[in-house]
Design brief:
alpha/beta; about 350 residues; Rossmann fold; globular; Alpha-Beta Plaits; about 30% strand; about 35% helix
């Protein structure tokens, strides 16, 4: 293996999108207005160095550039600028060698053939990688046992639960026995119980037992905190922070965090909360705007001073406070401190 399992330098991907033309109907036709092309920088000059055997997290909201990064590293997209190497191979100049080195795992239910059995799905993908028949059969049996699907292996995938399908997704990425796994939101849409099973498997089996190098994208803060050795926080295509989960949170240790759940809150109250003396950041996320139901995060230097003022303001504005507590900083608080908004906004 090279010094780094995955390395990018100024990696960039830009997409073109059409701008809306001015005018409507015949007016636009007679003017012969051509829409101007706008650029969307999906991945913006990112630098990453992921060590062999590391479980590295790419944490960010939807649309931040996580999936585009995975597609660049897996050779599905060609960079517009910068370079990337996977297992020492250049993703553009040595794309076939890169493809042999990686396994790709995605979230959701795409990527499996529902009319085939679990075993048939794995066999099909093993043949795409030219895995010899004898090795493929043995490996498929081992993988099915690894995720406790051996008893359901010969049933059609359409009969599987969502959690079972995702376990099959994970081992599908292992049929070629890659040293590097690119996992794009592998727990997306799973119920909490199934998500825990997948997370445990990734950490204990894939990293600790099999020593796989894993690039894991997610927008779940708890998942990144539990699993990853290091995390890069990405937003609008840029890496805005990179460190271990503990070190990222240490940078927030001097900041007090007040968490509330309220109802009957007004949309305009966010700016008013920010104007309270001592408040550094205040972010409101409405869970049910029709009844003003929301969660509030307030960052401040002294919670004992800010909490009474914030509660007094909310009560006077007509809001009903359901829960109120001072909490320890989380990765979401790190994101709020960097961007001024919640991760899932």
């Amino acid at each position: 293996m090279p010094v780094y399992a995955i390395e990018t330098k100024n990696l960039t991907k830009v997409f073109e999108k059409k701008a809306k033309t001015e005018g409507k109907g015949l007016k636009r036709f007679f003017r012969r207005v051509r829409p101007k092309k706008e650029e969307l920088v999906a991945v913006d000059h990112i630098d990453l160095r992921i060590k062999e055997g590391e479980l590295f997290g790419l944490l960010g909201p939807n649309g931040a550039g996580k999936t585009t990064t995975i597609k660049l590293l897996s050779t599905l997209l060609i960079p517009d600028d910068g370079t990337a190497t996977v297992n020492g191979y250049d993703v553009v100049k040595q794309s076939q060698e890169v493809q042999k080195s990686i396994g790709i795992v995605t979230g959701g239910e795409r990527g499996l053939y529902w009319r085939l059995t679990g075993r048939e799905n794995l066999w099909f993908f093993s043949q795409l990688y030219n895995v010899p028949d004898r090795i493929a059969k043995k490996r498929i049996d081992e993988l099915l046992k690894l995720v406790e699907l051996e008893k359901r292996a010969d049933e059609h995938v359409e009969k599987y639960s969502r959690g079972m399908k995702q376990r099959l997704h994970v081992i599908r990425g292992l049929v070629n026995d890659p040293q590097i796994l690119l996992m794009d939101e592998p727990t997306l849409g799973l119920d909490p119980g199934s998500a825990i099973v997948i997370r445990d498997f990734i950490k204990k089996e894939l990293q600790e037992k099999l020593n796989k190098t894993i690039l894991h994208t997610t927008h779940y803060m708890e998942e990144a905190d539990q699993l990853c050795d290091r995390i890069a926080i990405i937003d609008h295509g840029k890496i805005i922070a990179l460190d271990t989960p503990e070190n990222l949170k240490k940078k927030m240790r001097r900041t007090n965090v007040i968490s509330m759940n309220v109802s009957n809150l007004q949309q305009a109250d966010e700016e008013k909360l920010r104007s309270i003396e001592g408040v550094k950041k205040a972010v409101i996320a409405f869970t049910d705007p029709t009844v003003g139901k929301a969660s509030i995060k307030i960052h401040c230097d002294n919670a004992e001073e800010v909490m009474p003022a914030a509660t007094e303001f909310l009560i006077k504005s007509g809001a009903r406070i359901m829960t109120l507590e001072q909490t320890k900083p989380t990765l979401e608080d790190v994101f709020i401190s960097l961007t001024g908004r919640k991760l899932r906004d």
